[in-house]
């Protein structure tokens, strides 16, 4: 499953946001494949197209794609040196696909800031330095092992790895993220094996007050975070964690009414999920039938057999073809018979690159 880890200094609103996530959590009965543990919240990926399919097919079950948030406790100043929970948090965060970094952008004299004042850029840099230091340890450990191998065997591959790791180490020592190092495609792939934290895409979550969330651009802290994110190849989403927590305890109808009143187009949590999809290059394909309508996540560029494999490995192994049409076609024509009549049902083979919003039926040998 796709996961994002939530990090941030103490008292910035992480628990408030994580509460909102767990309260919006999917029902385990409908999502038996989701791993649900205390520090994980599994939420549905909002998708109006799936809602529309469901209204057309009246299936027994409608299943949204899911996204997991992991609460990464213990990432405080000095964490990489073993203070606080120390390295325990690192193993949790290494397994995530992206990092959501909650930053305090609200003034409130009743809520102490660990660093004594509200200063989002300073906070960001404190956390990022911890991530950099953790990566430096990882890289140094690996270098220690591989350098010996490269020297004794004159192993070409090992030598190339040493060269790459030294470049990364130099950047980290200069307090720059591994992501800032220029790498070709192959080197990038190799780096994946180390699960470096500063290679992961970062979303800054600017947590601001209820009064300000309707017009985030007017919040001076948010402006700073936005500039910082733009300069560092990252994204930023404004939210009010308190509002998210309130939203999470409402029914769908109440939620819509509340959001209209707050002049919010979309909940902050939904925006975070959408942003994560975008930076991770994720797309959605759909399957539709009387039993089940369902949204599935795949990475941009995946072929039809690879997407079949998202559903089941047997579908990929025995793949024959995909019968497909666009969501827009069923939205307009309202049933599959009409789509066929209109000549819009396509047969696609193993080289077909699946597109976001394709509705697919897979044909396969068992
Ligand atoms: P954590 O330590 O990062 O998990 O932070 P918490 O979620 O426990 O929040 C710390 C305090 O800030 C709590 O008293 C929250 O109620 C409060 N808080 C969180 N978000 C907001 C917000 O948007 N505005 C205000 N005024 N307070 C907030």
Automatic annotation (TrEMBL):
Q: Which UniProt keywords apply?
A: ATP-binding, Coiled coil, Magnesium, Metal-binding, Nucleotide-binding
Task: Please name the InterPro entries in this protein's record.
Answer: ATPase_YchF/OLA1, Beta-grasp_dom_sf, G_OBG, GTP-bd, P-loop_NTPase, TGS-like, TGS-like_dom_sf, YchF_C
Tell me which residues bind ATP: 11-16
Q: Which family does it belong to?
A: Belongs to the TRAFAC class OBG-HflX-like GTPase superfamily. OBG GTPase family. YchF/OLA1 subfamily.
Q: Which NCBIfam families match?
A: redox-regulated ATPase YchF
Q: Residue limits of the OBG-type G domain?
A: 2-259
Q: Which HAMAP family match?
A: YchF_OLA1_ATPase
**Pfam families linked:** MMR_HSR1 (PF01926), YchF-GTPase_C (PF06071)
PANTHER family associated with the record: OBG GTPASE FAMILY, OBG-TYPE G DOMAIN-CONTAINING PROTEIN
Q: Which SUPFAM superfamilies match?
A: P-loop containing nucleoside triphosphate hydrolases, TGS-like
Per the record, the domain of life is Bacteria
Where in this chain does the entry annotate a coiled-coil region?
Answer: 129-175
**Biological role stated in the UniProt entry:** ATPase that binds to both the 70S ribosome and the 50S ribosomal subunit in a nucleotide-independent manner.
Query: What is the recorded name of this protein?
Result: Ribosome-binding ATPase YchF
Q: Does the keyword ATP-binding apply?
A: yes
